[in-house]
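Objective 1b. Sequence-to-structure analysis of Sulfate transporter.
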Amino acid sequence: MAVSIVQHDIEEGAPIIDDDPFDNHTKKILPDISENGSNSSNINGVDAFHENGESHDDHHGHAANPSYKSLIASSVVCFIIYFVFCIVFSSVVWDPLNSSLDPNINPPFGVAQGVGINLMGIAVGSVFFAWKSGCNAIIAGPDLLPVVFFAEAGTSVVTYLAASSAQALRSACADGAVADDAHHRFLGGGGGGYAADASADPCDLFHRHLAGDELYLDEASISKVVPTTLVAMMIGNLVTALVFYGLGKAKNTASVIGCIPASVVAGFLTCIGYKVIKLAVLITTGYSFKQKYIKNLGLDYWHQNDPWLPLTLAMVYGLALYAFKHMHIISTDKLILAFIFGPLILFFIMVAATGTSMEYLRETDWFLTQARDGAGCTQNCAFVFVNFWQTLQTVYGAFGSNLVAWGAVPRCMPIFIMGAVMTSLDNMLKLTSSEKALGIDLNYNHEMKLGGKATMISSFLAGSPAYGQTKFNVINLSIAGTSESSLPTLLLGGICLLVFLSGAAGNIINIMPRFLLGGLCVFAGVGFLYENLWEGRKKMNRASFAIVWIIFLVNFIWEFFVLQNLPKDIQPMVPGLLVVFVLGIVLSTFEFMFAFMHKAKDPSIRCGDVCCSSAVRSDKHDSQLAVMAGWFQVFKVDSFVFFGTANTLYQQLKAHLAKQKVTLPKAERTKYLIFDLSEVTGIDSSARDVFYKVHRLLKSEGINLVWAITNPKVGEAFEDQGLYVGAIHFDSLDLALRHVEDELLRKAHHLSEKWLVNQTVRDIFQRQVLVNVFNISVRAEEKSFASSRLRPWSKIITLSSGEELCGDDDDNLYLLYSGEVQVQERDGSHFDCFTGSFFNLDHVLVSVGALAGLPATIGAVATKDSTVLVVSRKNFLLMQKQDSALGQKLLLTLLAQKEANRPGRTRTRVPYMDSSDGSDEPVPIHGVARRLLAGDDYKISLTDAQVERFSDVFDLIVAPGETEIPMDDFSSFVSMEARLLGSALSHEEFMELIDKSGIDEDGDGSLSKEEFLTFLRGLFLADIPSKEVESLRQAYDEAVAVDPDALMDEVRVEALFKELGFDMKSSNIGDIIGAIDADNDGDVDYDEFLTGIGMMKKQTILSKQLDTAFSNYMNQSKAAKRELKRRSTVESDSQTVPNRRSLLTLNKKAFHSMGKPRNIMEQANLEDEEGVELTASDLMAFLNIKRDEAEEMVFLADQDEVEVDRIDAVQELTGINLNCHRSIDRVEFQQLLRTWS
């Protein structure tokens, strides 16, 4: 859909969208992107006064305690500004008809009554919107766009009536030899001309030097002008009301409006701008602006006042006002008030200084006048008191008489239909701009229906259309300081109603000079032209911008050159606006055809478990990301995005987030949202406005926004409009997914570190990091393994950013240690490799016959400074022979990565544990396993295979010719390997960790091989009592004897460990078998079995230490709750609320941790239950953390499938969260330390 194309200003790094020449007085930087304000996007000339500078995003336009003074002041300021605009609106319609009004009506119907029509629209609209709108502070009323169409309709009515009068005029002239021009009446300023000057000869061509649009009317036709025009306007209002209501009722507001491309709307707005400039000339001078009269401008004419003087003043006034608005020097309300009262005061000071009378100024057309006032004045009369019922009497009285020329109404219908469509579009865009300006969300369909109802009631009361006006909404917010109170809206409606009933509008019109009213029109018209014909180039591509200019030039040529040469009775039926409206439909069709060469699909939502980056990660990280899969989603949009598509996406997003609120606890809801625009070919500028709303919605929900945009033009448009501000953006979905995955893993690391308040847990956590680094298991079912196993078969190289690697004939295998590499493929595509990824693997697989066809990779380039491990094809083949287990493992890993190395692959969720059968209950160790804990005088050694593998690693690290490794070098090796596995620890942290491990036994600052192997033995193994060795040997022999010809494989060893009394749930038997069977022959001999016993004992000791830590956590939590409950009771008895300092001191002393507690009194009142599992409230108590973090920690650890008590939307709005019965048992606690280390 289209939204008006307008100004693009950048101030303080944020976008300004000013779509409307009156509305563009609003400077509003998007509230969800910058702290500087909001923005507007309207299409007509009167709706954008946004407050300069102040952001309303943080409080969504809600002041804590707005004063009645500010609320009343807001309504008064809005009335003053709106009333002046009502005079402008009325002048546009009724001043050109001034000399065509019925002389029998006193005072004659004209500008003053037109002001009353607009005041009625404001009164009705304000009441309706204050009563039923989604935002009670929305101010509703008429605007310039429908006024322009009403002016066209008035011209059409007069032209129709003039047709019946033309013959009489021709007969009155000599022998009918009157030029074809003769029935045009000379329009002097203030309604002079034939009707005003009875002595003027209508056949005298000299008197038509600067003739305008009015046609000759006889007395019968003159009496029909006002009734027919009012009836036509009423019908036009009803058409608009029905379109408003129909769109809202059918819930098709966005989709129908979305059928108009922004370029077509922008072009149409330039035509409106040109029309408004013409009206400014007419209001200021009384002359129409047409090519056929330009040649006569230099001739003498009988007017006393040179029309160029007020026109020049109007031009200076309008351009100056627009310039000040465009530069955002002061706030809109102050600017407009200053430009209303300042020139008025200065003008009347000059009048007083020169002694000029008001009567003379009216005679010389400085003011709007009427032909008579009913009190004796018959020319250039001031406006007088108006009976408020005159309009209603005229329009409804016409239905029962012959005063309505019904034949003129069908001629107006194309104008009304065109006006209804454009006004509906204007209404829709004002809704979007009001949302951004006020920081609220509106139901477009409801607001459209409401506008339809208000406009319908207003039309029956002979009022104007009524719909929300952004400029006044922002003025109201800036003065009142709130968007919640309906008082300013109701007061404004009441003031307008009182002025309407008083009939005092004419007295105010008498002091409004023509140049000021014309200047406001210039201000509006210039905004339309500049912001679409010039600034529009920043928002649209060349083709769309060319369409804007085509529409404008066609309208200009038609209006200025062609239309006036058509027959007079045909001219009103083909106005320029109608011509360009049809042209716009044609251009829209072509633009849609080009944009939708590829059919657009509906936006889709995918969860994180089916959206994975191509990054190769460890089993543990994949498991972690599977648990956190619900924390991020991908919204995919393709093809060309119009407003309708973007709005569908926005509504889908809102529904998705709303569903989460009533089905998921906060800890399990979305944290990151990726918008995948990688297949988008283009975005209509109106659709980009919807993305501002997306930005604000996600910010309000605390969700991180990530853009994935491949098309450079789309990316440039987003950057120019400030959509990248406050969000992360990437050139591909794969990069975006990788970033989100990395951020989630960092978040998981941050949360897991909170457990380390217990020193035992911290030591075990750090030990697990080292275990991961020196893991030598090559089990085939493990997706990844420590790269240290590959180091003896490879070399390390460093690449600078931009350096190329591996050509089409390169058959080396590469493993990325750090940095990023982009791999180019034979089909022209490319993908990005991240830390831990192999690349060029298809060359290796093809060369060994594991993959058919040609290798896809033809090259690679480092996109960042990178470190790469290189395994040559020769070494790869040698590995298959000399270390078959490693070779097999590597081959399987490469095949698995080849399959998985693509964006969008699925990630298997960790299955929930079924606790209904009690299978997750701890199994106490017993028998031999229990006795093994009684001593450690028997030293268990590493297996020969382990010694060999670890020695290879040592030889790899040590410098050539050296026998020891400096501790700093060893720390660098460990930190590099750990980062390859995803560790977030820094090099300094690893240095501290290694120093604490005591690996450097002699303290000489270097590491010998013996110290290295001793360190690893202590890392993996625990010694056992010597008296149990014989029983272990006997148990092993008995197990072998059961089936002596079969291998002592994993299944049999696991059964033996269980028989010896080990708790198999608290240990990872797969890791142990993979480590002791390092040669991967599938047969565990006695020595390997004994090493396995040492590893099982190590696991058992660690498990018992974690059980102790788990119990300490439980006890600390209970003690904290009891103490807080006791203190709460004591302080409650003394009616003293505990201060923040005392609560912090209590938590520091009890739990040795820092931080501000949240909802601490709520926790103090919890009952002291003797639970055996940790809950979020327990973590809050003993870790002194916020509830959100506590619930997230429990969610990550809990492997049970739990039920969630649903809540409804009302409960969500009142702050009631979902009741999720999650908790952590001891098995989950131990698994947590292994999984999240």
